[in-house]
Amino acid sequence: MPLVYQHTINSNTKTALWHIQEDEAFFLERVPLKRDVSHPHKRLQHLAGRYLLPALFADFPLEEILIADTRKPFLPDEKYHFSISHCGDYAAAIVSATQRVGVDIEKGSEKILRVSPKFLTDQEKMMLDEQMSASRLLQLTTLLWSAKEAMFKWYGDGSVDFREHMHAERVEGNDEEGRLICSFRKHDPLPLTVQYRFLHDLVMSWVVS
Ligand SMILES: CC(C)(COP(=O)(O)OP(=O)(O)OC[C@H]1O[C@@H](n2cnc3c(N)ncnc32)[C@H](O)[C@@H]1OP(=O)(O)O)[C@@H](O)C(=O)NCCC(=O)NCCS
User: Which pTM was predicted?
Assistant: First the structure.
């Protein structure tokens, strides 16, 4: 079944994860392709992400999506706030009628460990130093990266420094699901909670605020 996870966050906000097993023609029946995405797999991911939006709210007006200078997609009248992510054969989306949102899916990789000094604060590095196993270290580093990507999309205005402006203070949860208590410091510090869930070989993170 392609829809592998669906979650109603509140009466106005839903999120879902899709395992892409269909071909392009399946998505093109419902999704208008409004820009040229030359790589076939990236095009499939792009279409699958868009496909999820009306799957979450049937009256989502796909044809009205515009792209900001920051490359954030949005609806001009903000009937819905939404965010999309893709990774490998998966696509995720979050849609809210009332709140700003951000979603990200990530698969753990050596690359994330390698670049982690660029996006982790000293306190986050200390949190990771306490981890007992290499697999837990990779899982938590990937979670922190994904959470910051979700916050970046939630903010939507570009120019955010992942170390300076996004701080994860603690994790409340386990290796299936939970939340990260964060602070977003681009302007006056703002408490922000990032929800997470480990599904298949991915972590999925989302912000609603
Ligand atoms: C925009 C960004 C968040 C996309 O993340 P990604 O992991 O490459 O790709 P994802 O599949 O998760 O997300 C892609 C989707 O994000 C959305 N998106 C693109 N730019 C966006 C933005 N500025 N704000 C919100 N959403 C955005 C789009 O919906 C896009 O999918 P689509 O083109 O099919 O519609 C990422 O490329 C980026 O710029 N990150 C910040 C970089 C940075 O400052 N890094 C510092 C690290 S130290």
Answer: 0.96
Q: Closest Cα to atom 38, ligand 1: which residue?
A: 149
Whole-number Å distance between alpha carbons of 170 and 152? 19
Contact 171, 61 (CB under 8 A): no
Residue 184 Cα to ligand 1 middle (Å): 18
For residue 167 and ligand 1, the question of a CB distance below 6 A is answered with no
Pocket test for ligand 1, best of 72, 116, 119 (most atoms within 8 A of CB): 72
Q: pLDDT digits over 37-84, tens only? A: 899 999 999 999 999 999 999 999 999 999 999 999 999 999 999 999
User: Residues in the chain with pLDDT < 50?
Assistant: none
For tokens 């982790």, name the residue.
Answer: 120
Domains in the chain, CATH or no CATH each: 3-103 (3.90.470.20), 104-208 (3.90.470.20)
Distance (Å, whole) CA 82 – CA 96: 6
- Nearest-CA residue for ligand 1 atom 9 is 85
